Amino acid sequence: MFMFDSDLLLFFNSDRFPELDSFFWYVSEKWVWIPVYSAMLFFLYKKYTGKKFLLMITCLICLLTCSDQLASGIFKKAVKRERPTYTEGLKEQLHLVQEPNGQLYRGGRYGFYSSHASNYMAVVVFFIMLTRPLKRITYLMLFAWVILISFSRLYMGVHFPTDILMGWVMGGSLGLFFSFVFFKLSTTSYFLELR
Predict the structure, then answer these.
(1) Of 140, 117, 133, 123, which Cα lies nearest the Cα of 175?
(2) Closest CA to 44 of 188, 186, 172
(3) Comparing C-alpha atoms, which of 9, 13, 36 is closest to residue 141?
(4) pLDDT single digits (tens) 144-182
(5) Which of 13, 47, 95, 118 has the fewest CB atoms inside 10 Å of its own CB, making it the most exposed?
(6) CA 79, CA 120: separation in Å to the nearest integer?
(7) Rounded-to-integer distance, Cα 97 and Cα 29, Å
(8) 74 to each of 81, 87, 190, how far by Cα in Å?
């Protein structure tokens, strides 16, 4: 399994197109996507107002906290699977992306599982559950966004493909769970009001 994981990573991580380095560096940056987060929040605000909007924000904050801390605070420390950029015999074969400060980006030491993949999948699943039904193109664009950000982590060599897959599974599961929590709480007498 490790060989397949490594081979697939090396296929995605290459120096064939070094001009894409800057592009994927910025794709991987959270602040670049502030306009997307803002648009999603605005869309949710139009659908859920008053107490329900505050409940939704609370669920979203809890979702992101759980998603991020499960990956970075618990799994990475417990599993201790080194990132490809620290893995002997593999790190020498990787094409590393240069940070704006000139250093080569390696990420933290441990990488299982990807908090980027988990967090973005969690947000997208949560958003879809709270806004459905949506047009098919909207679903495609949202999942393409998750795939693009996740791919940037492979391109930069800081995650194995299985780190990304596990991140998607965990993030998607958490997104479903917190959307269920939102719907359950929003139907209690306290939240039963006109939207």
Answers:
(1) 123
(2) 186
(3) 36
(4) 999 999 999 999 999 999 999 999 999 999 999 999 999
(5) 47
(6) 22
(7) 13
(8) 12, 20, 34
CA distance 56 to 48: 8
Residue 1: pLDDT band with limits 50, 70, 90: low
> What is the reported pLDDT for 62?
97
Measured between alpha carbons, how far is residue 127 from residues 55, 63, 130 in Å? 14, 11, 5
Token code pair at residue 53: 């909007």
Can you name the residues that pair with 104 across neighbouring β-strands?
98
> Cα–Cα distance between 27 and 92 in angstroms, integer?
24
Beta bridge partners of 130: none
| Residues 167, 115 contacting (CB under 8 angstroms) | yes
Task: Spell out the domain ranges in the chain.
Answer: 2-9+26-191
Q: What is the DSSP string of 119-175?
A: HHHHHHHHHHHHH-S--HHHHHHHHHHHHHHHHHHHHTTSS-HHHHHHHHHHHHHHH
